[in-house]
Design a protein that fits this description.
The protein has 91 residues and is mostly beta strands. It folds into 2 domains: 32 residues, no CATH class; 47 residues, no CATH class. The chain is built from 1 helix and 9 strands.
Length: 91
């Protein structure tokens, strides 16, 4: 049985990694074998709203990671919206 998960091709529980050799012929090479699929832990960030004083945890999917310019100039890395007053909160 062959199936594809996140761009990887699995055949009978073994991961097949596609690649192209020098002659531009596509082949599949046996790669790593996944014994048991796990789950990626959800990381949370703790924010404190300067406007209303609410302290809340937000999942990384609910936050926005800022670029390196914000970190260098303002020392902030993450931006989220306060669930109470709806203002932007930074850490």
């Amino acid at each position: 049985m062959k199936m594809e998960v996140d761009g990887f091709i699995f055949k009978n529980g073994e991961c097949l990694i596609p690649y192209v050799d020098e002659n531009k012929f596509s082949r599949e090479e046996k790669g790593m074998e996944i014994i048991k699929l796990g789950q990626i832990p959800e990381e949370e960030k703790r924010f404190e709203c300067k406007n209303c004083g609410t302290i809340f945890n937000a999942n990384i999917n609910e936050c926005k990671r800022l670029d390196h310019f914000a970190y260098i100039h303002d020392d902030i890395q993450w931006e989220c919206v306060c669930p109470l007053c709806r203002k932007k909160v930074y850490i």
